[in-house]
Amino acid sequence: MTIVLLLVGAIRAIYYTPVEQTMGPIQKIFYLHLPVAICTFFACLTSFIASVGYLSQKRRFFDDLAEASAKMAVILCTIVLATGMIWGKSAWGQWWTWSPRLTFSLVLWLLYVVYLMIRASIESGNRRGTVAAVYGIIAFLDVPLVFLSVRLMPDMHPNAITLEPSMKLTLAICAVPVVLAAAGLAHVCYTLNARRNGGESHGFEVIRRPSMLAGNGGQS
Amino acid sequence: MTGSLAQLRTLVEKDLRIEARSRQTLGLIIVLGILIIVVLGLGLGAQNNIPGYYATAVLWVAYLFAGVLCFEKTMAVERVDGVLSALLMAPIDRGVIYLAKLLSNLALMLAVALVVTPAGMLFFGFDLSAAPGAFVTVIGLSLIGFAAVGTLFSALVSSSRLQGGLLAMMIFPITLPLVITSTQLLIGAFRDGTPIVSTGLGVLAAFDVIFLTTSWLVFEWVLEP
Q1: ipTM of this complex
Q2: Of A1, A218, B60, B119, which is the most buried if we count CB atoms within 10 A?
Q3: How far is B209 from chain A (nearest CA, A)?
Q4: By the CB < 8 Å criterion, does A141 face chain B?
Q5: Do B174 and A153 touch (CB under 8 A)?
Q6: For the segment A191-201, what is each residue's pLDDT rounded down to a tens digit?
Q7: What is the pLDDT of residues B136-166, one digit of tens each?
């Protein structure tokens, strides 16, 4: 159903929406750019809430949810950056400028890519959960600061835009499948995590435990 | 309250005394900072036509790398002979442990900044006379925030016996707002002559407050023997 809606949105955007005056057809990438950008933010928010939940309750559910939403944040932010760069190339004549919004998206992307890297490099399940949760909280608290700090830089990205009614409708139609796709993918990621970690805690960890204890004893 | 202060003083004194006697961290990070400035100076400045305000970005690179090494080292001291386990068993609030570590790190970072900053200015011909007070304020506020984040993550990473490099990867993206704000402010002040705006200082101060508070709150879960 999501795919059908995505197709409907694409067709609507391509055929039935007026072409923007100054930028021409390239402006249509906007119908993907904005909803995905908004979804990125909600993915980060979910990751933050799940991280807080994990630190306070130590339940596996929150850890898996945090990882799934961080993955989604990275994927969505990559799409935002890619569509933004294509759009920027045709609208401003450059792939990349160090303008505030672009820098902001790039830093956001870096923050959450690092989150996934941290998870990938820690083996022990509980320790990984704690480290990742602390990092997830700090990373999300960093986001408004990045936003404030980049406002000191010179700007060319539009802040407020006025849209034709039919453009608004297209935007809404495109936003629905984007949200559905993001939520669906997040759910798939979560299920995968839950199954993998569930397996780990039943069979894998029991075997590993003696060696970990030995390692600890040697260290401290 | 006075008890906590006394504990704090004891812990900071312990760290600084170890450092004063072994001198293994400070020399290392100062030399590293100077090396970074020389390398970047050779890469950028050998043409002799780069503007002095480049120094702000170069100084940040030096602070970042020296800082990561400093945080790693000061936390590694705690792992020798099981000091950390003893510390956790002692009747001290975890927040006090965090603050003590933060103050020791800050003292070391200030020592580094005192040597590396003049070196950077010398090599890049950076003229401080336009706004010396603003420069000190901006760098000072940034270093506090940097040390707050660094102390938290060094404790986090050190407890989990991870491979090196992870600490740098955690700290660099988190400190980017500090880097952006302070370089923008300083370039504005020294190139364009615009006075330091209060919103900029506000961002730096907000960074410090947010990360000091959060670190204090989550430090409870971070330390593991």
Answers
A1: 0.78
A2: B60
A3: 12
A4: yes
A5: no
A6: 877 777 665 55
A7: 888 899 999 999 999 988 888 876 566 567 8
Best A77, A109, A131, A155 member to test B by mutation, with max B CBs in 10 Å, is A131
**The two structure tokens encoding residue A219:** 């260290």
Q: Is A97 an interface residue toward B (CB < 8 Å)?
A: no
- Put simply, whether A211 touches B (Cβ < 8 Å) is no
Residue reference for tokens 């660094």: B150
CB contact, 8 Å: A137 with chain B?
A: yes
The DSSP line for A118-172 is HHHT--SHHHHHHHHHHHHHHHHHHHHHHHHHHTTS---S-SS----HHHHHHHH
Which of B83, B215, B218 would best serve as a mutation to test chain A binding (most A beta carbons within 10 A)? B218
Alpha carbon distance B62, B69 (integer Å):
11
The model's confidence at residue A217, banded by pLDDT at 50, 70 and 90, is very low
Tens of pLDDT, residues A76-119: 899 888 888 888 777 777 777 777 778 888 889 999 999 998 88
Name the residue ranges covered by the structural domains of chain A: 32-154
**Helices B198-222/A125-150 angle, 10° precision:** 170
> Which of A118, A142, A215 is closest, CB to CB, to B166?
A118
pTM of this structure: 0.78
